[in-house]
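ligand=prephenic acid
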Amino acid sequence: MSDTSDKLEALRQRIDQLDSDVLRLISERASCAQEVARAKLADDASAVFYRPEREAQVLRRIMELNDGPLDDEEMARLFREIMSACLALEQPVKVAYLGPEGTFTQQAALKHFGESAVSLPMAAIDEVFREVEAGAVNYGVVPVENSTEGVVNHTLDTFMESSINICGEVVLRIHHHLLVSENTRRDKVSRVYSHPQSFAQCRKWLDAHFPHAERVPVASNAEAAKLVKTEWHSAAIAGDMAAKLYGLERVAEKIEDRPDNSTRFLIIGSQDVPMSGDDKTSLVVAMRNQPGALHDLLEPFHRHQVDMTRLETRPSRTGVWNYVFFIDFKGHYAEPHVAAMLEEVRLRAADLRVLGSYPKGVM
Ligand SMILES: O=C(O)C(=O)C[C@]1(C(=O)O)C=C[C@@H](O)C=C1
């Protein structure tokens, strides 16, 4: 045998040994999770098994401990799947997302809950809320803002009519590809299908490369991918999941105009999430229609040194010219300085609802 094959043989033996160790340790961890489940049940027959704050702490700790050669995100992704499988042993988690299959929202659901979660596509954002409210699923995943295109108004508006909480957030880097079926050649593309937001995110690239192609907006990127599967001379703008699901070819990859294009999704549920150590809170506040109302709302944030990360205004659905504010800030409602600030804002507001405190997105 050559030196190289001797070396390969030795390395593979070492890998086999390490795999046995990893296998034993993962099984030990899974048994521990089963014990955790028994302890939770002994304490409370209707115990909640999924613990977003604990999951965030586990993943943050792994990323801190990691010294490579795998990068932090990759390592967190592996542990995400281990935890997902452990949670499924305790109780399989059911998640509704804005479908159809192959959307970025499904990708976000998988990134957050891992592959062991059961995910169910819904046709509209309000349907995701309804399924969670009815208890048909444990959690829901809906898009809330894109770094290029801004807020998803429909999601914010639905919170006004719902008592659902926010239990988490997940941020996804959005990469769009130009996809065709195997029968279509790049120089023959005369029509492009996509979701209006995706067209907006790839406008400059399309103007430069396909200025004469007709742009046809459809309900989702996955819908666009499905259409071109059976249509010649047409292309879809969609992401990895849709490309894989419909077996499409990539004419061009990562065609989004901004390389940092990302979308934030919310995890909704009925759970109240304890502090994780790095949390955010979302609020909806209605102010009285009078001069200085916005100043009155913002002043306690400044005085208590609470860092606001987002402020959105939406027309209230209850009266003409009345507005409500959606506010995100750093911190958990149970932290004393946050609680004090919230109490002051509550006294000044016509109405205030804490939509939830939840761990800042980890991966
Ligand atoms: O710590 C817990 O409460 C567990 O149930 C264990 C565990 C894990 O595998 O680490 C599993 C599921 C929870 O969502 C959080 C963590």
